[in-house]
Amino acid sequence: MNDLKFAFRQLLKNPGFTAVAVVTLALGIGANTVIFSAVYSVLMKPLPFPDSAQLVSVRQMMKREGWRRSAFSVPDFRDYRAQATRSFEAFAAFTDASFTLTGNTGAERIPGETVSHDYFSTLGVVPALGRGFVAEEDAAPNRVHVVVLSDELWRNRFAGDPDILGRAIKLDDHDHTVVGVMPPGFRGLHNRARAWVPLAVGGASLWDNRGGRWIEVIARLRRGTTFDQARAELMTVSGRVAAENPAPNIEIAADIAPLREELFGQARQPLLVLFGAVGFVLAITCANVANLMLVRLAGRRREVAIRTSLGASRGALAHLFIVESLAICGFGGTIGLMLAWWLLGAIKRLAPMDLSDGLIAVGLHGTVLAFAFAASVVCALAIAALPALLAARSNLNSAIKEGGRSGRDGASGARIRATLVVGEISLSLALVFASTLFVRSFVNLVTQAPGYRTEHLLLQRVSLPGARYDTAARVNFVHQMIARAAALPDVVSVALASDTPLDGEASASFFAAETDSPDPSANEGRAYLHAVTPAFFQTLGIPFLRGERFAESYAADSERVAIVSEPLARRFWPNGDALGRRIRIGRGDANPWTRIIGIVGETKYRNLAEPRTRDPDVYLPFDQRPENDLTTAVHTTREAGGLTSNLRDLLRALDPNLPVVSATIEDRIAQSTAGQRLSAQLMGTFAIVALALAVIGLYGVVSFSVGQRTREIGVRMALGARPANIARMVLCGAGRLVTAGLLVGAALAFVLTRVIEALLFDVNPRDPLTFGTVASTLALVALLAAWLPARRAAKVDPMEALRYE
User: Fold this and answer.
1) Helix or strand holding residue 767 (H, E)
2) Second label for 488, Cα 20 to 30 Å away, from 321, 387, 474, 687?
3) Residues contacting 310, CB < 8 A, separation 6+
4) Is 70 helix (H, G, I), strand (E, B) or coil?
5) What mean pLDDT is predicted for residues 17-33?
6) 149 phi and psi angles, rounded to 5 deg
């Protein structure tokens, strides 16, 4: 207790030192707490389901250029559920969906999920009101229309009506009876659902189609079942299913993975990289504060010597420094937690997903607070270790004779401080280099040429209810929409498509090409299908390379035609000569042939970050493949957002019960790259903090060295040394530290690039120009920091220096 009181008095007597140390530690501990909160919530915290370790994702695997994951068809899922019973307690299917909810307050497009009846029971989630689905509601297509609501939708749209059960609400123009309300916070496995309908309703059109692979499958393992046992049973079942249904199940297998890996596997590496980055920041922070403590120790050598002469043991001295460090780190950790709370709020606003509820509830939980406490204690011990060691090794006689005047702590203290600075510079170099790569990657991502226009393009999404819009009605709606939108002011062209650029939701369909190859497998592929109107390519600015465009309309019995992207043409026909050739969309000879009439440029239609794939784009005339989900694309001569209200009013005039989701192409690009933007921003921030701390550390060490060498500098100048010689001497000493730090940092940066290489887009992780620029900039900034004390040393008055000694 006496040491604690003394430590507080010492800190109050040195407010400048205390403020710098506490703020530095607050930055390091706060940043680490924030990122650990995300790491814990996403990668470590148990999923919010009973016995969540037993939950697995069941993956159907397809052999195509190696084994690649594929979705399940509904018939295949039913077979697996019925046959894989030895290792699995339950099977369930689900897929992302959205519904149009209409009522007294207007139409609203809400996210949801289409699920099998055993979805909630497999997860172990019990509705807060009512019940989930039963087998009878999921036994045959469109037999029963029921719905389960989220707590959020129930409270916001239906005012938490306790009599909601049994009430009919209108989804996609069909009456659905509410049978249950889920507990607060449950949003399904896509973490955004507000309503659930049975698979037999949402997937009625694909109920018996084994080639239509569109659902995801989860299962619960029986207790005591190993992953190897479950995999073996799945392989047996998959072989049996393939033998019974050979055409749609060629080279199909099955595998499992922990459900957490399925949900958050893609986030693991980016989060761990960010956690490593803030770990670098914390290490630099500890080195900086340790250097400050060593500087203070040099001024307290007489105090330490007197304590030793009065009988203080090495343990007692170490205890004194540890208590001081704990006090500093306690203050720093407390402020760091407040900083973490603020930073978490900012990150939640910038993140591309909701981090406050559902499966990912990032916050200052008990485990996160324990981490912050542990980090503070570890920092305190790391900071106190070197001062305690040096104090124990100090020369008692020389310390008392000097009386604390010069503040010298000997060569060992100088070497330790120099080593700490070298470590800070090396860590900051590696972190700044990595952050530069992340920033360059993000810039390359958002400035690339995706193959379509990236400005002056408005996109508006609507969904036509099948109950009111048959095939003819859809085609008529589209033609009216185009005609009216084209009459709006400042509109250059208008088109409609079945999907939205950069939504990432389209799934690839199998097709067969008519070629001269005798090998059937060489003629097969997968492509992303888009139903579009004739002006689509002009509106989006997709280059039309050759061939003919779609006609304004097609009769119901007209020949099937398509326009394909150039990679498809190059892959199947010599010199890309695909005009007049045919493809068959889907598997099976019953599907009609489609003639290729045009070839357009390659685009990144689904996702800017995905690499070029062998799955090209196939565009079909909307009249021949009318879809319910539509995206209106409008090319305008002014800012696209200015047309939003005009287009919405136009749509309401056509049908007031259709909800509308509007976005400019700039919005879509920003949304699709939000994750990469956040990573680049965080890495850049951590790098700036690390660089600032390293420069401050170098400045402190050089300044203290100049102060210690005041008499030596005075003697040199008295003997004729010029101020330029003194400044050069100081800068050369700093330059040696910077050079050593850069060499160590270069090796560390090389190792780090191997870790982050997979996260970069179109960037050479070992680009010598980037590394040279970063290293030169860091060296320049560091030497500029050293120039200030060097300049002060050059102005030392020899008489004053010698008089001082």
Assistant:
1) none
2) 474
3) none
4) strand
5) 86
6) -100, 150
Residue 288 and residue 697 in contact, taking contact as beta carbons nearer than 8 Å: yes
Place of tokens 């939504």: 503
pLDDT over threshold 50, residue 581: yes
Average pLDDT value for the chain? 84
- Amino acid, single-letter form, for residue 461: R
Those residues with Cβ within 8 angstroms of residue 207's Cβ, 6 or more apart along the chain or in another chain: 74, 75, 140, 141, 200
Greatest alpha-carbon span in the chain = 107
Output the six-digit token pair for 259: 């459900």
As given in the structure block, the two tokens for residue 495 are 């088109």
Tokens standing for residue 13: 């007597």
Average pLDDT over residues 190-203: 88
Dihedral of the alpha carbons of 175, 179, 182, 183, in degrees to the nearest 10: 140
**Residue linked to tokens 């998959």:** 238
Characterize the bridge pairing of strands 88-102 and 216-221.
antiparallel
Separation in Å, CA 749 to CA 177, 311, 525, 684, 770: 60, 48, 41, 15, 12
The rounded distance, in Å, linking the Cα atoms of 237 and 231 is 10
- 658 vs 157, 158, 194, 662, CA distance in Å? 17, 20, 18, 13
pLDDT tens string 650-671: 888 888 888 888 889 999 998 8
CB count, 10 Å around CB of 738? 26
For tokens 């800017």, name the residue: 608
CA distance 356 to 363: 7
- Work out the angle between the directed axes of helices 410-447 and 674-708 (0-180°, nearest 10): 160
pLDDT of amino acid 436: 93
Q: What is the mean pLDDT of residues 768-788?
A: 88
612 neighbors 467 (Cβ within 8 angstroms): no
**Average pLDDT for 243-269:** 81
- Give dist(CA 315, CA 480) in Å, integer: 87
Asked if 392 and 305 count as a contact pair (C-beta separation under 8 A), the reply is no
Helices (H), 406-460: 410-447
**For the residues 294-309, what does the mean pLDDT come to?**
60
pTM of the model: 0.85
158's tokens: 């239906």
What is the three-class DSSP state of 228? Answer: helix
Residue 783: strand, helix, or coil: helix
Top pLDDT among 173 and 57 is at 57
DSSP character string of 349-416: HHSSS--EETTEE-S--HHHHHHHHHHHHHHHHHHHHHHHHHHHT--HHHHHHHTTSS---HHHHHHH
The one-letter amino acid at 564: V
C-alpha distance across the termini of the chain, in Å: 38
Question: Two tokens at 56?
Answer: 């697995």
How big, in percent rounded to 5, are the helix, strand and coil portions of the chain? 55, 20, 30
Question: What is the DSSP-derived secondary structure letter of residue 73?
Answer: P
What distance in Å separates the CA atoms of residue 561 and residue 364, rounded to the nearest whole number?
A: 57
The mean pLDDT of 773-794, rounded to a whole number, is 84
* Residues 337 and 372 sit within 8 Å (Cβ to Cβ): yes
Q: Is 201 helix (H, G, I), strand (E, B) or coil?
A: helix
The DSSP-derived string for 604-643 is: --S-SSSPP-S--EEEEETTTS--SEEEEEEEESS-GGGG
Q: Which two tokens stand for residue 787?
A: 């120039």
Query: Whole-angstrom Cα distance, residue 589 to residue 574?
Result: 25
**Joined tokens for residue 302:** 């007489």
Per-residue DSSP letter, 266: H
CB neighbours (10 Å) of residue 38?
22
Dihedral class, residue 410 (left if φ above 0, else alpha if ψ from -120 to 50, else beta): left
**Residue 674 contacts residue 355 (beta carbons within 8 Å):** no
Close Cβ partners of 729 (under 8 Å, ≥ 6 residues apart): 793
Which pair of tokens denotes residue 608? 């800017």
3 state SS of 44: helix
- Side-chain half-sphere CA neighbours of 273 within 13 A: 29
